[in-house]
């Protein structure tokens, strides 16, 4: 779905997608794909904690959920224990995002590089993702949450692929909040598959090289899959656990994201941490290269 670059306090209804093919031509907005923080829906204003301003909340928050294993280890437990606790932190973050009027949440659940972890842990995580999606679909339908799973789905167990596809289909017309789970995701791979898709369109005579611009390119990224129009780039990108890097997450899309790093381990990430990140975001001067006179 799309949250277009609209003036504060106006939130156009999302377009229903008409195509799910990454290589199909899309209607691209003339405006740049990355946008400034927009407004929260008026209905959410009363639920906002003191200190947050509805008119300058991020529309799209991305999170690198890191530190599950350290959290578990500190308790003498295996990593699976930390991943289960991380699931609860994600559910809390989703609930708060919805309550506060944030319209898109993208969570890095499993990177392309995470395939190199022990098979036991990888198998646990794949099972966890399937359970999370299965257990949440009814709630997503009730709360108007649209789910997308991005990443190299071909590497996922068949049952997880099926569960993800069915949940995406079931929630396709929801428009309160876009939840994107990045599983087996690589930002570099995302850029490469977008290049490949455009190259194929050129080869097929559907496109001229000189027609390729940032907007067209962004439309081929996995974060745009299944929509006629573009999801806004993350306004705020949060990483937990004290690591100060992007680790191959949303490389194109984070070009103008405000970054927030916290030492809090992901399973401990709660309302106070989220508030701190949002308050920090609201204190930033987002100039996008312009000079403020
Ligand atoms: C993040 O926690 C979850 C995944 C990457 C799947 P980690 O398991 O990376 O936890 P740390 O960073 O090793 O503590
Ligand atoms: Mg880690």
Mind explaining what this structure looks like?
The protein is of the alpha/beta class and 293 residues long. The chain has a domain at 52-188 and 234-281: Decaprenyl diphosphate synthase-like (Undecaprenyl pyrophosphate synthetase). The chain is built from 7 helices and 6 strands. It has helices at residues 68-73, 79-100, 119-143, 158-170, 187-203, 214-218, 271-282; strands at 60-64, 104-111, 145-150, 177-185, 236-239, 258-261. The chain has a 6-stranded parallel β-sheet with strand order 3-4-2-1-5-6, sandwiched between helices. Strand 3 (145-150), helix 4 and strand 4 (177-185) form a beta-alpha-beta unit. Helix 3 (119-143) runs parallel beside helix 4. Mean pLDDT is 87; it is low at 1-44. Bound molecules: 3-methylbut-3-enyl trihydrogen diphosphate (IPE) and magnesium ion. 3-methylbut-3-enyl trihydrogen diphosphate (IPE) binds next to helix 1. Residues 65-70, 79, 110, 114, 125, 241 line the site of 3-methylbut-3-enyl trihydrogen diphosphate (IPE).
């Amino acid at each position: 779905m799309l949250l277009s670059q609209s003036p504060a306090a106006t939130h156009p209804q999302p377009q229903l997608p008409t195509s799910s093919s990454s290589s199909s031509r899309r209607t691209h907005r003339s405006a740049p794909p990355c946008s400034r923080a927009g407004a929260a829906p008026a209905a959410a204003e009363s639920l906002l904690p003191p200190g947050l301003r509805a008119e300058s909340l991020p529309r799209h928050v991305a999170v690198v959920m890191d530190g599950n294993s350290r959290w578990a280890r500190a308790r003498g437990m295996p990593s699976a224990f930390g991943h289960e606790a991380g699931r609860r932190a994600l559910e809390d973050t989703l609930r708060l995002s919805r309550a506060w009027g944030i319209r898109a949440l993208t969570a890095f659940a499993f990177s392309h590089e995470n395939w190199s972890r022990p098979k036991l842990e990888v198998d646990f995580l794949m099972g966890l993702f399937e359970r999370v999606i299965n257990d949440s679909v009814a709630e997503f339908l009730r709360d108007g949450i649209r789910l997308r799973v991005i990443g190299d789905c071909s590497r996922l167990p068949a049952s997880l692929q099926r569960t993800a596809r069915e949940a995406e289909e079931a929630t396709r017309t929801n428009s309160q909040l876009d939840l994107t789970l990045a599983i087996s995701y690589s930002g570099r791979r995302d850029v490469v598959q977008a290049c490949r898709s455009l190259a194929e369109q050129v080869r097929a005579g559907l496109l001229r090289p000189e027609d390729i611009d940032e907007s067209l390119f962004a439309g081929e990224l996995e974060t745009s899959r299944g929509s006629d129009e573009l999801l806004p780039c993350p306004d705020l990108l949060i990483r937990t656990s004290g690591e100060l890097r992007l680790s191959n997450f949303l490389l194109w899309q984070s070009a103008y994201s405000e970054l927030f790093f916290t030492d809090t381990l992901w399973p401990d990430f709660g309302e106070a941490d989220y508030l701190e990140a949002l308050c920090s975001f609201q204190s930033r001067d987002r100039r996008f290269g312009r000079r403020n006179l």
